[in-house]
Amino acid sequence: MKRVNIIFSACGLVILAYSLPSWAQVRQQTQTTTLSGTVESIDQSQRIVHIKTDDGKFETIDVPKTAKRFDELKVGDKVAITYNNTVTARLKPPGEAPVAGNVTGSNMGQSAQPGGVAAVHRTITATISAIDKNASSVSFVGPNGWKYTRRIVDPTIFDKIKVGDQVDITWDSDLTVSVK
Questions:
Q1: 50: which of 15, 35, 41, 99 fits an S-S bond (Cβ 3.0–4.6 Å)?
Q2: What residue segments make up the domains of the chain, in order of their start?
Q3: What count of other Cβ atoms lies within 10 Å of the Cβ of residue 88?
């Protein structure tokens, strides 16, 4: 059984691939994950929903405590879930102030059926903490001890960065859940 975690946090499905030739701003193509099927079982205490997809596979969805009207979901409900995640990275000029912020919005639980749309726009400034050309990777450190390492596809990026450089990383994520 495949486990799918649906999280309203923009950190859920981060893809950060610096594969474009310019570091002024690198926009990663949007990654979309979709799932549809029938609710087979619900564990109210653990907030887990098991969905049987149209092709007969079973998926497990962890529903965050922030999701409203979870208790209205029923076995047999038809559901469709779409999660979109886009990441943008920008090398900061020296001396520019760091940023850290979230903008969120949601209309979850406001219609006749449970579901709706939730969106997050999050930007943080991270510092390049390590560069490993042999492994073709860059490590970052950000606010609150956040750490991340990512493989770099375009080797020319290594000529444009150094340890200590700051990068603004922005995640635009949205989640759509519909119950039919």
A1: 41
A2: 2-179
A3: 15
